[in-house]
Design goal:
CATH superfamily: Bacterial extracellular solute-binding protein, family 7
Shape: globular
Number of helices: 14
Helix content: 40-55%
Strand order of the largest sheet: 7-6-8-5-9-11
Structural class: alpha/beta
Radius of gyration: 37 Å
CATH architecture: 3-Layer(aba) Sandwich
CATH class: Alpha Beta
Distance between the termini: 130 Å
Largest sheet: 6 strands, mixed
Length: 371
């Protein structure tokens, strides 16, 4: 009996010890699992802390001073340029547009651009000659064979080369090259029909101040009269000036033909213009090789083509619209056209050649484009 009791007690002790061991192991495992979960939670929290919210990119706003008036191809193409800039930069670059000379004439906005108080400025190459002569060739009579030749030159390899020269000289980069009005300049006046250069003698014609333009007027016997574009209508109305040498579309859309009722169709000089970007704005966009700057250049090239197509339609219709307005539109005969060209050649020695405003090398390069 005692022996049985001893066996039972021994068995109970063994079972008791086994139970204690199992309980102790579970108790030990619980804290370990808890610590592992806590460690994992800490890592997750740490990871979240390290994840920084994506920084919102700053919007770059470029102010643009321009002379285009609403309702013209130039104005519509400019609006398209603004739209494309925002699209191609994913909204990082926006443009504030001030058309119709709100910020001043060409010279005013170029000076502001050079001083980095304005980011974009539109200026004719003739008016730009006040600040640099690099693009003076654009205004030389007889330099271009026709409108297509102008566009070919301004989209050739010469473009980037000339743009960098302008940037180096005045600190503003030409992002766009255009032909104002999409055609050669016509001679408008309020006095009489002009068929040949001799007929223009003693007319007072507005000049941009370009040396080339003034010399050309001298060959025609014209009195060069400096006047801002925005003052021209009033100037002709009051008789301070008799007319203007300008593209037919800009002359018509700015209502100059209301007071200058005589127009001579010429094909000697074209009126290219540039859209300049200030040096500070170029740097804001990452420099000339920067992604944002290149996006703006892409928008510029596309808007140039859009404007060209719009201009072609306006040019085709403008003579008839002028005639409906009572303007005498005279188209010189082939013989008379030769006289105009020959009269303009008198200024070649003054401006073309080594050491002159237009180097012989540049002249030859321009003539070679499209040949």
């Amino acid at each position: 009996m005692k022996k049985k009791i001893s066996v039972l007690l021994a068995a109970a002790m063994v079972l008791g010890l086994a139970g204690c061991a199992g309980s102790g192991q579970k108790a030990a495992e619980a804290p370990a699992a808890t610590e592992a979960k806590q460690e994992e939670a800490k890592k997750e929290e740490s990871g979240k802390a390290e994840e920084k919210p994506e920084e919102k990119k700053e919007t770059i706003v470029l102010k643009w001073g321009d002379a285009a008036v609403e309702g013209t191809a130039e104005y519509e193409a400019n609006e398209k340029f603004i739209e494309l800039v925002e699209q191609y930069t994913d909204g990082q670059v926006k443009i504030e547009y001030y058309p119709a000379g709100q910020l001043g004439a060409d010279g005013d906005v170029v000076q502001a651009c050079m001083a980095n108080t304005l980011e974009l400025a539109k200026c004719s190459t003739a008016n730009l000659s006040e600040f640099t002569h690099i693009l003076d060739f654009c205004d030389f009579p007889g330099m271009f064979r026709d409108t297509d030749h102008v566009y070919e030159v301004l989209s050739s390899d010469l473009r980037d080369e000339l743009a960098m020269q302008v940037y180096s000289e005045i600190g503003c980069y030409p992002v766009t090259f255009d032909v104002d009005g999409g055609a050669a300049r016509w001679l408008f006046n309020s006095k009489r029909d002009v068929k040949v250069p001799e007929d223009a003698y003693n007319l007072k014609i507005r000049t941009t101040g370009s040396d080339i333009e003034i010399a050309l007027y001298g060959e025609w016997g014209i009195g060069a009269t400096p006047m801002a574009w925005q003052e021209l209508y009033t100037g002709m109305e009051q008789g301070s000036v008799d007319g203007v040498y300008a593209g037919p579309v800009p002359a018509f859309t700015n209502n100059f033909t209301e007071v200058a009722k005589h127009a001579t169709v010429l094909t000697l000089s074209f009126g290219p213009s540039v859209r300049l970007m200030s040096g500070q704005a170029v740097e804001q966009l990452g420099g000339v090789e920067g992604e944002l700057f290149q996006a703006v250049m892409k928008a510029s090239r596309e808007s140039e083509q859009i404007k060209r197509e719009m201009n072609e339609k306006e040019v085709a219709e403008v003579a008839d619209k002028m005639r409906e307005q009572g303007v005498s539109v005279y188209e010189p005969t082939a013989e008379e056209s030769v006289k105009w060209l020959e009269s303009s050649r008198g200024i070649v020695p003054q401006f073309i050649g080594e050491g002159k405003t237009i180097s012989q090398d540049l002249y030859d390069k321009v003539q070679a484009v499209g040949q």
